[in-house]
From TrEMBL:
Provenance organism: Amycolatopsis mediterranei (strain S699)
Coiled-coil ranges (or none): none
Organism domain of life: Bacteria
Any one GO molecular function term: oxidoreductase activity
Pfam family, one: EthD
Gene3D superfamilies recorded: 3.30.70.100
Name of the protein in its database record: Ethyl tert-butyl ether degradation EthD
Residue intervals of the EthD domain: 11-88
SUPFAM superfamilies in the record: Dimeric alpha+beta barrel
């Protein structure tokens, strides 16, 4: 799997950002080809200290090629062009292949 993450800095008008993002931008995102899943939050906090971001978005694709094809599609280009309509504080976009890990649930237990 390949993940794309968008980190949004504080916008000039947080109310406009929230409204536009949910009611206009996310419906455009949902139309992107090859998109397996997506999620977002406006409740971003840092541990410890001041939160550097206003909102976060995550998208999942089968692999890097699927993500690239999706972003270069007409729908993907429309999504990218739309960011300027609400993200006045700027946005940082990162992407990476996801590596799975495991958790040892028996750690610290007596045998």
């Amino acid at each position: 799997m390949h993940k794309l993450v968008v980190l949004y800095s504080e916008p000039a008008d947080p109310g406009h950002f929230r409204d536009y993002y949910v009611n206009h931008h996310l419906p455009l995102v949902a139309q992107m080809p090859g998109l397996l899943a997506w999620r977002y939050s406006f409740d971003v906090t840092a541990m410890p200290g001041q939160t550097p971001y206003f909102a976060i978005f995550e998208a999942e694709f089968a692999d890097a090629a699927a993500m690239t094809a999706s972003r270069e599609s007409p729908e993907g280009r429309q999504v990218s062009a739309d960011v300027a309509n609400y993200a006045t504080g700027g946005a940082t976009v990162i992407h990476y292949p996801v590596q799975d890990g495991t958790v040892d649930l028996g750690r610290g237990r007596d045998a």
